[in-house]
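Q: Hi! First time asking for a complex rather than a single chain. Here are the components, and I think there are four in total. Is that enough to go on?
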Amino acid sequence: MTAPDIDPLSKRRLKMWIRLLGVARAAESSLREYLRVEHGTTLPRFDVMAALYRRRDGATMSELSRMLLVSNGNATAVVDRLEKDGLVRRTASETDRRTVYVALTPEGLRQFERLAADHEREINALFSDLSEQDVEQVTALLKRMGKGDKA
Amino acid sequence: MTAPDIDPLSKRRLKMWIRLLGVARAAESSLREYLRVEHGTTLPRFDVMAALYRRRDGATMSELSRMLLVSNGNATAVVDRLEKDGLVRRTASETDRRTVYVALTPEGLRQFERLAADHEREINALFSDLSEQDVEQVTALLKRMGKGDKA
DNA sequence: TTCGAATATTTTGAACTTGAAATATTAAAA
DNA sequence: TTTTAATATTTCAAGTTCAAAATATTCGAA
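A: Yes, that's all I need. Here is the structure of the assembled complex.
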């Protein structure tokens, strides 16, 4: 039904995207299940904690949602739940009363470190078919894909 | 002579995954916004319609959720809304009263064909930095990654 | 045939996600 | 100074997502 394609590359890019999405979703599914069954937590919670682990001194809500590519409201909701569970702490900024800093609590830090090792093992198993060269190649190509980000 | 490998393959696979997830999420964000602004629809709706387009004769709910890697309940909800909007039709199976077939209505088909062309253009633009060789390489590598799917 | 396992779908409750609107605050401009 | 624009976060409503439970039905085995 669609008109004959003058630019077959376009179709190939589409196929590539569909495959990329498929791989990402399948791996996410696996991870989600792993986190739920083995650690009683969820991927969004893990993502927030991982971001806060990288920013040990704390990050603002805005930084957090930018790092994770999620909306502000979303970040607020997940942080609310983590805070209620004592894994994360909000601190008001001294210099700008609009700003809130979020950081892992000691308990949050302990829990995340337990999670992180298992998470890496799980990822490693999921992609165990790829050789070192494959991994480097994919990483390099993905790096180039991420460059033109305007959003 | 060479430095000891302080960055084993496991860590590289993890980095690759983080980058893969980043690229996928950024592209999904773009698509989501595009579908919302230009077509007043959402990615899940598009995904369902795309699956039904590939299965023009209709698919069961189970097939649908398997194709899209989403839960049954999720598929039910999205199909409910599409049905309410007249884009999709449920039909009871003659031979198995448990089974329901879902298919695009003529209006759903028309709308999807309008969407699909634009969607392809959008994807093509998102990954315009990649040469044909790049695209083939990524596709091939992703194909290998998807092999070990046990879920 | 009847019972129990397996299959197909929907329902349910909670968490997640979004975009937009509402608040509060800061910074800049007139 | 006063007003306006920009920034940071939360709240809100609607939609998405999940896993588990509930229904309904089919199928296989005793």
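A: The mean pLDDT of chain A is 91. Let me know if you'd like any chain examined more closely.
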